[in-house]
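Re: weekly structure request thread

Next one in the queue (156 aa):
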Amino acid sequence: MFDIGFLELLIIGVVGLLVLGPERLPKAARTAGLWIGRIKRSVAGMQREISAQLEAEELRQKLKEQERKLDDSVNQAKRSAEQARRSVESIADTPNKGNGGQADSTGAQSASAGQRLDDAVDSAARASSSSASASTLSPAPSDDTASSEHKDSATR
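Done, posted below.
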C-alpha cells in the first residue's frame, strides 16, 4: 500500500522511542497495528460488497437478455401458428365458395373444422411456450436419455 522501506521504519521506530519512551511504545505499536488491521478489513469488506453488486448486476442483465430472447421466440411461434391457421382457413374456405347449394351442409363441417383448428393452434402455442420455458429452466437431456426415449416411443 505505502512504499515504506526498512530505513523509514527504523527512523519512525527511533522517533517513537524518543517521543513515547520505552514503557508506552509497545502499547502504541499494538494500538496502531489494531487500527491498521481494522482499516484493512473494512476496505476488504467494501471490495467484496462492490464485487458482489457487480456480479448481481451482470446476472440481472443476462436474465433480461434471456427473457427478451424467450419473448421473441414465443412471439415468433405465435406468428407462425397464426399464419398456419390462416392458410388452413383459406384452404378450407376455397371449396365452400365453389359448391353453391352445398355450402349449408359443409358450412357446419367447416365451422367445426375451424374450431378444431383453433383448438389445435392454441394447444400448439401452449406446448411451444411450455417447452421453451422448460428448456430454459432445466438442462437439455443427454444423448443417452434422448435415445432411450426414442427407443421407448418406437416400441409403443
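Confidence is low (pLDDT under 50) at residues 98-103, 138-143. Helices lie at 6-99, 103-137, 143-155.
Next request, please.
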